[in-house]
Amino acid sequence: MRYFSSIYIGSYAISMKIFEIKDNGEARELDNMRYPIATIMDIFDNGYISVEKTLEICNVLNDMKNTMEVYKVKDYTLAIGSMIHEAKNEMFLVDQIRIRVGLDPTRLTNSEQRFYEYQAVVSGKNFDRIAKEGAILVDIGGASLQLTLFMNGAVKTTQHLDIGTFKMYMTMQRLKNIHDRNEQIRDVVDKELDTFLNMYFPERHISNLVIMADKSIKSSKKLKSGISYEPEVFSDILLKEWEDKINREGANFSSLERAMFILTNELIAMIPADRVYLPSVAINDGIMLDYLYETKLRIPEHDFNNDVISAAFSLAERYGSYFPHIQVLDKLSCEIFDIMKDSNGMDDRMRLMLRVAVILHDCGKYISISEASSNSSRIILSSEILGLRHKERQMVAKVAEYNRKELPNYKELSSMFTRKQYWNIAKMVAILRVANALDRSHKQKLKNVSISLSGNELVIGVGTQTSIALERGLFKEKADFFENIFAIRPVIREV
Amino acid sequence: MHFSNSVNLDDPKLYENRELSWIKFNRRVLNETRDDGNPLMEKVGFLSITASNLDEFYMVRVASLKDMVHAGYRKKDIAGLTASEQLTLINKETKKFSSDQYQIYNDELLPLLEKEGIKILSSYEELNEEQNAFVDKYFEAQVYPVLTPMAVDASRPFPLVRNKTLNIAAMIQSNPDRVGLVRHEKKKKVIEFATVQVPSVLPRLVPIPSVDGEGETFILLEQIIEKNLDKLYLNYDVVSAFPYRIMRNADFDIEEDEAEDLLKEIERQLRKRDWGEVIRLEVESGIDKKLLNVLKTNLGIKEQDVFKINGPIDLTFLSKIPKKEDRCDLYFKPYVPVNNPRLLPGCDIFSEIRKGDIFLQHPYESFDPVVDFIKTAADDPKVLAIKQTLYRVSGNSPIIEALSRAALNGKQVSVLVELKARFDEQHNIVWAKKLEHAGCHVIYGVVGLKTHCKIALIVRREEDGIRRYVHLGTGNYNDSTAKHYTDCGMFTCSESYGEDATAVFNMLSGYSEPAVWNRLVVAPIWMRERFNNMIDREIAHAKAGRKGLIIAKLNSLCDEKLIKKLYEASQAGVEIKLIIRGICSLKVGVPGVSENISVISIVGEFLEHARIFYFYNDGQEDMYLGSADWMPRNLDRRVEIVYPVEDSKIKEEVFHYLEVELNDTRKAYILNKNGAYSRSKTIDENSGSQEIFKREAEERLKRSKGYGAKKKI
């Protein structure tokens, strides 16, 4: 039996869940604490978190730490939400937490944060069915919305829209004296959503709309988590509650709540769906699941890697990549990776990154053929790929970039990557280059190859029927690089 | 029977004013002094209780109405009365009540006491020579040293007269011929006002030698002082002297939002209680008019708030008559709570709870298991944490001691101490500090809400993981009152209750409430709606032609919205049986409104205190126990818990409990259409519910293996 605590400092609250975990990976929630503290207010008002709020955060965390001690919790993740990064003094907060609380925080990037949330949602027992039917998962945060589109059970795309509840609230504050400010807000939301839907989802009808909310829905007393609603019923409940609040609180009904209601309601209106779901999970559940997967206490039921690959292919399609080429490269690079991995300390996570790099390595041609690698790198960096951590996405971008460009020495990249990460980039570049060289003509001449290790050689066996003069001609340079990295020389042999 | 809904349920005529209803309750207690089933000393005890009840009523309820009048608050209550109108009616009723109290004291109880050899002298003038000498000696040796006589003149302002203290007011006249410390230069005789507090450190009832040495004779302390008053004002003559007592406004508001340290703020406010507005002056009837005028003027009190008492002021002294150990017939047969058959002394309480939920009925069953629950946890190495709410605890509470020990043993102990528990504030501050000192984490609750729920949670690490043990009660964690109050409790280690209990304590510590509760119904946010829904459900059943039945046992019912909902239910044909000890603002038998509602009130040896709610729900029979009454304060301004009973055997027990009370014709009063309470026309002498419960608790124990394990007195 082990105990794990997942703590999250978000825009509106600090939350902690403590789990009891059996050896078979079964987890039971023991404690659930949520302390409302709108850090986001400070950040938007002043650009930094006030000393008072920092101390309050530390006090709450100390209290949570005491609770952890009750259950004798040793393993924990204290995650700081991506919104907090916008505070100029974020490092001060991190430092104070270390000094005053004695817990070591992890700073989440937006993609990591979204992934934890997503991980929690998709682990729900009905999610795979919902994803197969088609679903849009909307994660409503303080600063932004994250929309993830699922088709045929896999992620088609995920997009980040700059219209979180708090940003809406700020806009409302600016429009304070305007008579029809609710309408104005609706227009802002509609415009952003419209762009997303036109680009990625012109069909405009989805079976399931899944809403994850940091605060908006959670402030509702009538809408219950873990239940699905007909959109009209959902809207009616929401509007009724809004009216009740206005009647009850009058002018005191906060603009923040107003913004939340408008935003949620517009989502329902703009995304016609058969059912609206409110998952009963929080980011803390996702953090716990990540711990279970990382420690191998549990194997995920949902194939998250498939989501990543599916999202990468969608991105490649959007940028007009030549699919027969990337498909054959995907196959070749995986075969090379698999045969090399045991002797080179490469793991499944790296295989996934390599595949994404392979799938997206030439998507930059969409912008400029001569600067394809650099553009591919930029596209990767500016696209959300749900399931890849931010650092992993940076590594993938570099692999795509150095497919054609020369890999600089470690010193140049040391501000971004650890030495190990650098070596992993180099290994992936080496594999991509060799695989790419084998389909230099983009004609998939080497569809049926056999790859094997023989002493210090990686033997790539090809049939004799096809002319592969071009591939052979360019292969030497790539093979040299590969040999430098792995101390194994790739050779092409006709069989 | 179904009625149309045309009656306007907002009509104030459909509701009884809560204060007047409370006075009726106190009258029912007063009636116990006339119930021949009660032994003499118990009758005397009941009279004393009515006196202390009335004091509290004045300090809180009347005070708050006076505040409303001062603030110009014109809103009417549910019965259509303004605060000022209520005060007029209260005044009339309490004066009548007071007169009845003294009629019972003088004409009924004093003669009966004397017959039993207990003589309480009404005046020092009744003393014989020997007694006179004894009293004077007692005065000089015991009383004189602790007296602080005060005189009032131009240079000495009217002194602070403390709330609820007994005092003697006197008119004294300077006498230059008498020898004293103060010399009067002028020959003119001056009349001055003087007052002296009857010291509360000395017993009010002073035993003195009896005539012929038979029986026991007592004189009241104020009579001894009055007799010797001239010794306090040496160069004065005492013109007249009479005892008096004032009641001050003891209802204080705390600006919790602005109070940095709630504990300190309450300490500060408590000190102010002694300076509150005087709202009642009690004087002996026959008091010198001039003396009364001085008091009225200086205390700022109007004639209508002066109570002229035909006997000794403050009858609470009656509870201090020493117990006559050789006269068992004068008292209730001592009842020692029996053990619950599943929680016999020495049992492993946690293992018993694991076998299934345990239901406790206090005081018929011992409160010891609840204390043992905390005591065992304090020393159990497997226990990680103890969390508990405390509202009123006993003087030397074993629970406080166990919690302190647990903290010293390294357990995490969180205790919610309700500092705002009325009249226990000072007491609570003392032991809150004690708990903090022992290392407990003391929480003072949620701003703006009183924490009234009774819940204890023990977190234990067992072989198969963390297990939470929960105790939920309807009464306070007070081992002393648990012997006199009827309450119910339940132990469970059901996971869903454990999760909810954890969430309750997180909520009380300032964390957000959970999105959903598994089992518990918690006020203020969720409870009102839940009760509404459950009543609505019965209405729907009744309207659909199915049986609709609600039984509720409460201390008080005065929430307008819920009463209205009950009226609606009655109109729809739901049968509603209410067992309400105290205030009931609902009226029964109103045509078209409440013909399906019956109300009884049980007043007996033990104070009825449990809250039980039963909803037939088309045969599903939902039952809840808890800490909440159907009063606005419980539903809107307090943290309360009502918890469902799920175990079928316990459900049977709870239903039986209600049935027995509903069939009680011996001690129950029936609320009539005219708002008066009366006994049943046909009384079954054996139907007294408290007696039945005593017997049943003993029988349950006998049937179990634990027979013979009855606790020693």
Order of strands across the biggest sheet of chain A?
8-7-6-9-11-10
CATH class of the domain at 123-255 and 276-310 in chain B: Alpha Beta
Tell me the fraction of residues in β-strands of chain A, as a range: 15-25%
Please state the structural category of chain A: alpha/beta
Helical fraction of chain A: 40-55%
Total strands of chain A: 14
For the largest interface, the chains and their residue counts are: A-B, 25 and 20 residues
Task: Describe, in plain words, how this protein is organized in 3D.
The complex is a heterodimer of chains A (495) and B (713). Chain A is an alpha/beta fold and 495 residues long. Chain A has 3 domains: 2-109, Nucleotidyltransferase, domain 5 (2-Layer Sandwich); 124-280, Exopolyphosphatase. Domain 2 (Nucleotidyltransferase, domain 5), CATH 3.30.420.150; 304-494, Orthogonal Bundle (Hypothetical protein af1432). Chain A is built from 18 helices and 14 strands. Chain A has helices spanning 39-46, 51-70, 90-101, 110-122, 127-133, 165-174, 181-200, 231-249, 255-270, 283-294, 304-318, 323-344, 348-360, 372-382, 390-401, 410-413, 419-437, 469-486; strands at 2-9, 13-21, 27-36, 75-80, 105-107, 135-140, 145-151, 154-161, 206-213, 227-229, 273-278, 450-454, 457-462, 489-494. In chain A, helix 12 packs across helix 17 (419-437). Chain A is globular and about 80 Å long. The mean pLDDT of chain A is 86. With 713 residues, chain B is α/β, with parallel strands linked by helices. Among the domains of chain B are: 123-255 and 276-310, Polyphosphate kinase middle domain (polyphosphate kinase like); 349-516, Endonuclease, Chain A; 522-680, Endonuclease, Chain A (2-Layer Sandwich), CATH 3.30.870. In chain B, strands 14, 18, 19, 20, 21, 23, 24, 25, 26 and 27 form a 10-stranded mixed β-sheet that branches. In chain B, strands 10, 11, 12, 13, 15, 16, 17 and 22 form an 8-stranded mixed β-sheet that branches. Chain B has a 6-stranded mixed β-sheet with strand order 2-4-3-7-8-9, sandwiched between helices. In chain B, helix 1 runs antiparallel to helix 2 (40-70), helix 2 runs antiparallel to helix 3 (83-115) and helix 13 runs parallel beside helix 14. Chain B is globular, with a radius of gyration of 28 Å. The model of chain B is unreliable at 708-713 (pLDDT under 50). The interface between A and B is medium-sized, with 25 and 20 residues.
